[in-house]
Amino acid sequence: MKERYLNLESDYVTDLGMYTFKFDPPISEGTFVKIRDRSMLKLALILRINCGVDFDALFREEG
Length: 63
Prior knowledge:
By secondary structure, the chain is mainly alpha-helical.
């Protein structure tokens, strides 16, 4: 996610470009979406941003 959203030095890269060309081996769109969404939720949790997600329910599913 750092490569996609936080790298100021790189050219603009789309989600398609990320999961097709940047991952080795390439991953599916669904896998990328899961990784991206979890990363964004973790960032929201760290920054204490209310994004309308029940984090308790989310963590019960994973653990």
